[in-house]
Structure formats: C-alpha cells, structure tokens
Design goal:
Pfam families (chain B): BPD_transp_1, OppC_N
Radius of gyration of chain B: 23 Å
Transmembrane segments (chain B): 45-62, 110-134, 154-180, 228-257, 277-299
Strand content of chain A: under 5%
Largest interface: A-B, 47 and 41 residues
Protein name (chain B): ABC transporter permease
Structural class of chain A: mainly alpha
Number of helices of chain B: 11
Distance between the termini of chain A: 8 Å
Shape of chain A: flat
Number of strands of chain B: 0
Order of helices and strands of chain A: HHHHHHHHHHHH
Family (chain B): Belongs to the binding-protein-dependent transport system permease family.
Domain ABC transmembrane type-1 (chain B): 110-295
Helix content of chain A: over 70%
Number of helices of chain A: 12
CATH architecture of chain B: Orthogonal Bundle
CATH topology of chain B: MetI-like fold
Oligomer: heterodimer
Chain lengths: 308, 310
C-alpha cells in the first residue's frame, strides 16, 4: 500500500508540472508588453521599466520563468502578484470560500437526491416511480448545464420568486440554485449508477440469505445491499468534486457568484495573466490530488481491491 | 438480441485466418448491424431523439425550408417585440425576426459538434489502438500524456486559449475544443482495445503469422469500435453544449455569425424584461444536445452484445 502511494505520488509530479505548464504557456502567450500596459499613457523611465521587468522575471527565458513560478507556489504558497501589486493568494483566499461552499452544497445535493432516487428505483423496480426517475435522469444528464442554470433562474428565481437569482448576499439560500445547477448532471448519473449496482446486489446470494433469515426489507436493502452498491457511487462523488471546480466557471458566471470560477473568467477577459495562472494551477492541483485520494479511498472501501 | 451476435463477433477471425472470401464477412457484419437496428427500432428514446435530430439537421442544412425571412433583415422600429402571429418567437434587440435567427443558428452549432467529434474520434482511434495494442512503454507514454491534458478542465483550457485568438470562427473554436477534449474518448478506446487484444482469436491470428497492422485493422478495430462510436455521438451533444457555453462566455463565435450561444449571451441582460429572448435559443440548444446524447446512448447499447436492459 505504501509503495503504491509513493509510486502514484511520483507519477503525479510530471502530470502536475506539464498540465500547469500548458496553462502557463497559454496565458503568457498573450501578445503585448504588460509593463507598457501597466504604465498606460503616462511616460515611464527606462530604469523603472528595467526594475519592473526584473521584479516580474520578464527577462528570463520562458521555462525559467515557469520554474521560478511553480517553485514559489510549492515552497512558499506564492502565487505571484497582480500588476496592481495585490498578491494573487489574497484574491484566492477571498474567493475560495464561495467556490468551496458551492461545491459542498452541490455534493450534498447530488449525494442525497441521487441516492434516494436510486433506492426508490430499486424498491419500485419497473413500476411508475422507477420509470419516472429513469426518464427524468435521462433529461438531467442530457441537458447542457447552461440550459439547466437558465431554466432554474427563470422558473424558481423569476416566476416563482423563491430563490435569489444572482449574488450571494442572502447566505446559504443564494447558493441553492447554483448548487442544483452544478449538481444536476451528477445527480442523474448517481441515480442510474446506484440503481444498476443495487439491482445487481439484490440478486446476489448474501442478500437472498439475509432475506431468508427473515430480516425486514428496509434492513436488507440498507445494511446488506447498499453497502456494496455504494462503493462506485462514493468514488464517483469524490471524482466529481474534483471536476466541479472547473464547472464552477460556468455556474458562477450565470449566477454572478463571486467565487474562483467567476474570477478566472473575469481575469481572462481583463488579461490578468497572473491571476488566471494562479487559480488554474490551484484547480489542477486540487483535481489531481482529489483523484489520488479517490483511488486510495476505493481500496479502503472495497477490501477486494489489492494494490500491487 | 444476443443470439446472432457471438457468430458476428467471431466470424471475421475465421475469414481472416483462412484468408477466405470477403462475402462471408459482409454477411456477418450485416447481421450485427441488422441486429442493432432491430433493437434500436424498439427503443422509444431512439425514435424520439432520431426524430428531433432529423428536424435539426434539416434546419442546419436547409434553413430556407423553415422560414422565408432573411435572418439579417433587421428593422430597429420593430425591436424587442414579444411573440405574435407575425413573429412567432418575437423580435430581438436589433429588430430581427427571432424565429428566423434561431433557425439559422442551428448550422454553426451542429457544424462545430460534428467537426470536433470527428476530429477527436480519429485521434482516439489511432492513439487508443496504438496504446492498447502495443502496451508497455508506448502505452505508458501515451497514457501519461493523456492524463496531463485530462487534468486541465476543458472549459478552462478552451477559455484561456480562445481568448488569445482575436478572430474566432467555427474552425478556430473546433480546433481548440479538439485540443482539450480528446483524452476521455482516447481512454475509452484504449480500454476496449485492451480487452479485445487479450482474446483468443487475436492470439490465434498472431499464431497464424498475421502482422501487427493486420491484427489491429481486421480483428481489434472492428471489435472495439462499438462503445467508441456510441460515445462519439454522445460527444457531439456535449460539444454543442460546450460551444454554446463558450460563446455565451464571450470567447466562442463572434458577431456577425448567427449562433445559439451568441443569442443566449445577447439575451442575458434582458432576463427579467424579455425572457423570450432567452427561452427560444435555450430550447433549441437543449433539444439538440439532448437528442445527440440520447441517440448515442441508444446506439451504444444496441452495438454492445453484452449490455442487456435490466
């Protein structure tokens, strides 16, 4: 197990380096002299220019710039500064809680609704509720996230007026619509996944034994069937948490939530390269680390899995 | 649906091994397709999505069939009208007939979907086949490279990349989407090649002296194609959604192009006052994406002899 973890960690070093390098290269391929942009119309002396270029490592070759940057990130959590002189880490600290709240609420929603729907399908297999859930999960999985976002905004925000449609000033309530949007696809997938697994599990020998012992049906499903059927669901939820940070860009800009995703979007259009690279690097690291944790969790949950 | 299938899956081996007639192989393939078609016809999801797609494709190719108006004939004096008998979907901010604009929007979205899906399919077939068949270091190199691109969320990558390109048409958006979305399908292809490569008929073909290219082309490719083809159809839907999203965010197609994403992004400030500007393009995007994804799922199920509906 320890050897497996070490090997996986070693494998992840090049993955993190190259994928952040891709982003770094993309952002700083933006043509134009940032120092001149900083000065605007005002004249700037050569000495000041030189000093600023030094400060931002602009005279180094590209790869050296990149390694200086990534070294700063991992040794000192230094994500650079914006051209206005504000540390990027400062922006991240201010915006991270919004995105994390959004991701956690969305995860809770998909876990609760997905699992309940999956169990209902198994209990009422081939009856009306099962069919209803199946049809609605097909819809949920197949609609683009942008459509679901606008639909919820129109129906529950505008027509019914139950939830705020933008911003996060009203606390947790204002996270509900965005979180439902972010969770919708995964809720459908979880319901289908769990139904498949649970229907299989209900036909297995140990469930038949449990039923034959005279256990109640709820106990058979809850204690015996669900335990095995939940393994792929739990790992799916974990892996999905990783990709949610990327999905937050779209949802946060639809609902004007001041989180990391909205900041990335804003910084890209405002050509604030350091902010984009800082946040995206953080997201990539999250993504890779969470995926590693999910793989390890899989082994803990399912003792049949052995790491060589 | 299970009966004729084992036959269909094993016949190419015997034909290749004996270098016998092509005719036998053709009938075998036909029976697999006929079998898939039989199960598709009974699937209500397939019927619904195929019907929607036919309409959408007709709209993309011959928009003139659906409307006689010119989408660029705009008159400011009739701007922002709500739906009426004369303008079914109302008119937009510039006073263009919104129904006509929405109809003409189909072409760009569906074009991006097809180009990207085709491009990604070609990349995945080649990389997946090579990685899954040769294994060892070839597989390690390709898989790690796939992991690296996979670790960059594709909306994010496309957002950053497209922002650097000053003029963006269908071609540019499609290229960038291909660059960031190929890993998923490549992984799928690699997986199904690995399971096809470990079968007995491949060992038999190798024992008979077949070369790498022959084994890959005649034995592995036909037997690992099913899930990938299904996913490629689903993928068209995903990409249409992604294109609309990117255009909505302001880094996709640009005016004067007509596209659903542009209509959504133009409509956003009028969400409260003129919701119809948002609703109609949204409806069309959703229907198209839904139809491709559902059709792809149905095709994947039909082509896979092992999947039986529970």
């Amino acid at each position: 197990m320890t050897r497996y973890i070490i090997r996986r960690l070693l494998q992840f070093i090049p993955v993190i380096l190259i994928s952040t390098l891709i982003v770094y290269a993309l952002v700083f391929a933006i043509p134009g002299d940032p120092i001149r942009a900083l000065a605007g119309d005002r004249p700037m002396s050569d000495a000041v220019r030189e000093q600023l270029r030094q400060q931002y490592n602009l005279d180094d070759p590209f790869f050296i710039q990149y390694f200086k940057y990534i070294w700063g990130v991992f040794t000192a959590a230094d994500f650079g500064t914006t051209f206005q002189g504000r540390p990027v880490l400062d922006i991240i600290q201010q915006r991270l809680p919004v995105t994390v709240t959004l991701a956690l609420v969305a995860t809770a929603i998909q876990a609760v609704f997905g699992v309940i729907a999956g169990i209902l399908c198994t209990i009422y297999k081939d009856r009306f509720i099962d069919r209803l859930v199946q049809v609605s999960t097909v819809m949920m999985v197949a609609l683009p996230i942008i459509a679901i976002g606008f639909l919820l905004q129109l129906v529950f925000g505008l027509n019914l007026g139950w939830f705020p449609i933008a911003g996060n000033r009203e606390g947790l309530v204002s996270y509900l619509l965005p979180a439902f949007t972010l969770a919708s696809v995964s809720t459908g997938i979880i319901a289908r996944l769990l139904r498949g697994e649970l229907v299989d599990a209900m036909q297995s020998d140990y469930v038949r034994t449990a039923t034959a012992k005279g256990l109640k049906r709820t106990r058979v499903i809850g204690r015996h069937g669900l335990r095995n059927a939940m393994i792929p669901v739990v790992t799916f939820i974990g892996a999905d948490l990783a990709s949610m940070l990327g999905g937050s860009i779209v949802v946060e800009s639809i609902f004007n939530l001041p989180g990391l995703g909205e900041q990335v979007y804003r910084s890209i259009s405002g050509q604030e390269g350091t902010v984009v690279v800082g946040i995206v690097t953080l997201m990539v690291i999250f993504f890779v680390v969470i995926n590693l944790l999910v793989d390890l969790l899989y082994g803990l949950l399912d003792p049949r899995i052995r790491y060589e | 649906m299970s009966n004729p299938n084992p036959e269909a899956r094993t016949t190419p081996v015997s034909t290749a091994a004996t270098e016998a007639g092509e005719g036998q192989k053709k009938t075998a393939e036909a029976s697999l397709l006929a079998d898939a078609w039989r199960s598709l016809r009974k699937n209500p999801w397939f019927i619904i999505s195929a019907a929607i797609l036919l309409v959408m494709l007709a709209m993309a190719i011959f928009p003139q069939l659906f409307t006689s108006e010119d989408p660029r004939a705009c008159f400011l004096e009739r701007n922002r009208q709500t739906p009426s008998a004369e303008h079914w979907f109302g008119t937009d901010i510039q006073g263009c007939d919104y129904y006509t604009r929405v109809i003409y929007g189909a072409r760009n979205s569906i074009a991006v979907g097809f180009i990207v899906s085709l491009g990604v399919l070609v990349i995945s077939l080649i990389l997946g086949l090579v990685a899954g068949y040769f294994g060892k270091w070839v597989d390690a190199v390709i898989s790690r490279f796939t992991d690296m691109v996979f670790a960059v969320p594709y909306i994010l990558g496309a957002l950053v990349f497209l922002n650097v390109i000053p003029t963006r048409g269908v071609r540019e958006v499609a290229m960038v989407l291909i660059i960031f979305t190929w890993p998923t399908m490549t992984r799928l292809m690699r997986g199904s090649v690995i399971s096809a490569a470990s079968t007995e008929y491949v060992t038999a073909a190798r024992a008979l002296g077949a070369g790498h290219v022959t084994i890959m082309r005649r034995h592995i490719l036909p037997n690992s194609l099913g899930p990938v083809i299904g996913y490629a159809t689903v993928f068209i839907g995903i990409i249409i959604g992604a294109e609309a999203t990117l255009t909505y965010l302001g880094v996709g197609l640009q005016l004067p192009a007509i596209s659903w994403g542009l209509q959504l992004s133009d409509a956003k400030p009028y969400l409260t006052s003129f919701p119809h500007l948002l609703v109609f393009p949204l409806l069309f995007v959703s229907l198209t994406v839904f139809a491709f994804m559902t059709l792809g799922d149905a095709v994947r199920d039909a082509l896979d002899p092992k999947s039986k509906k529970k």
